[in-house]
Amino acid sequence: MNIVLGVGGGIAAYKSALLLRLFTEAGHKVTVIPTEASTKFVGVATWEALSGRPATNDVFDAVDQVNHVRIGHEADLIVVAPATADLLAKAAGGQANDLLTTTLLMARGPVLFAPAMHTEMWRHAATQANVATLRSRGIHVLDPAVGRLTGPDTGPGRLPEPEAIFAAALALVPGVLVAESATTDAATTDVATSDAVTPVPDTAAAVANGAAALYGRHVVITAGGTREPLDPVRFLGNKSSGKQGVALAESALAAGATVTFIHAHMDVAPPAGATLQAVETALELRSATLAAAGSADVVIMAAAVADFRPSNVSTGKIKKRDNVADPVINLVRNPDILVEVVAHRAAQNQRQLIVGFAAETGDAESDALGYAREKLRRKGCDLLVVNEVGPGESGAEKVFGQDANRVHILSLDGAAPVQAAGSKRTVADAVVELVAERLGPG
Ligand code: CTP
Q: Domains (ranges, CATH) in the chain?
């Protein structure tokens, strides 16, 4: 496959050297087009040596071959990494003043931008409008990863890791087979890495080993705990840390999936390499999940959704007053998002696998698994991952905020329950394996 790798002028340009290695070792021909600014970070010699091809951003090089037309037309895929705010603006505005921007206008195949910039620049209305414009034209723009940036600042703006960009890019081209030699040993080359690294899944290795069981699949994962506001400073929340949802996303990414990660409040950082969407309340989570579910092969509802929300949200802070009765909070029921996702699938006649989570306690009437089986029938999802909650033998909390977990995975079709125990990642891998088994080859 012919790939064009556009490199923007940001410190993260060095990571694109690793991305380039992943592409070339997977057997693809890569033409690198570095912007002039990017050559202040990584020189043209590096791109030419690693790609084995000329690397220029000058439309007046190789004029006899009408480079800007030829390269764009011949590209099966264009990846721009890092995509700076400036490059996103130029692409959204249709500018064509160098080889990279003209090539983007000539593109016939899929185009993927992997942005990297400071959080303020990413969140700026101008950048967000440019991203929205590009996405509305069918161009793929990854959300930046969250983590340490070049200076002392931390937040969304990091370039997603090369393995994640590699998997996201190849997933855009149907039927691309990754050559046996694609390994992540690029990740161990001596290219300097200066910023802190959020752990990322070894997608390329998984793809190369044929272990990418979810390669080309779109997985939507909800995570964290919703917060239902009472007034501008108070909310009803829950103990969910988001750790299990993050582990699921990392496991799905490692299996080659593209992941949309919709998260309410979490105590941990969201996963690198996923498209992130932050929400607060159950109603926001519902809108985001139903919108994303339309294109999903798998929906995993790991979020702890508040069943109720205050019927009234006070616009001012609720005050205590000596001569006035203490407030009573009235609650109304939130929609059951999992049930709605199942109904949405049926209405769309969609082939989709839906996984629910349940935290259960037993009592005198039934044990936790009995309640879980009943919940699985009521919700109608394909798999239900059941945690027993409440104090463990030592009196310590068993699930929420803990690093390890123990679950039973029940199937609606009556298949024998599967048990998994260990780290949240071990549990996530068991869920992802079952999901992949049921989906079969893509
Ligand atoms: N869930 C949902 N929408 C809700 C409540 C729960 O989508 N309003 C989803 C959760 O994300 C989870 C599953 O349903 O995947 C089960 O959550 P749980 O809280 O155990 O179920 P409830 O329906 O709230 O049942 P219970 O009455 O036992 O609290």
A: 2-208 (3.40.50.1950), 218-439 (3.40.50.10300)
